[in-house]
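Action item from last week, closing it out:
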Amino acid sequence: GAGSQGNRDLILMGTFGRQPAAATLLRNSPVQVSQDRVSIAAPDALADIRALFLDQPGGAERRRAAAALTEVGESLAVIVGTEAPEGGGRSVVALLGATPAALANAVSTLRDPATAGQVQGDLAVLNGVRVTTFRTNASYTTGDPPFWMVPYLMLDESPWRVGLLMLAAALLLALPSAWMLRRRSAMRLRARTPKD
């Protein structure tokens, strides 16, 4: 079932109304699938403020995605990428269409090297031949990165870590500088003081 995927990435394909597992598998995404509809959760009041400090999209991007999803038609298909419900750096990629023909169009879009590069972000809305992409969710990491990328990924996840690193760097520069200035000041005072 959807809850027992284990340690694997998942691909979900089908039409909107015929994928009961879509709601469960996409619960970490703002994209919501119910019956024959696809919608996107509205951004909260702090989305734009969070976007300034964290690696998250602002509210405007979700509003643009919601507007693109209102153009419901027979040719509408979506490609959604999100972290699996159990987390652990596993992914769920959902290819969903209003009709089987729209789903086939999404698959052919991914197969064609000329149009596959247009599919970026965590949500791609395909309406006929038009591909519109959005970043509606925070990013997450998968796999084991090379050792030189680990500090970047750790700092990328939290602005507080960047602030602590900057504070530590300031202390590492300030303490030796203060010691050297104090030593130089003491040497000058000794040089000015007359010896008896």
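Closing note: Residues 159-192 form the longest helix (34 residues).
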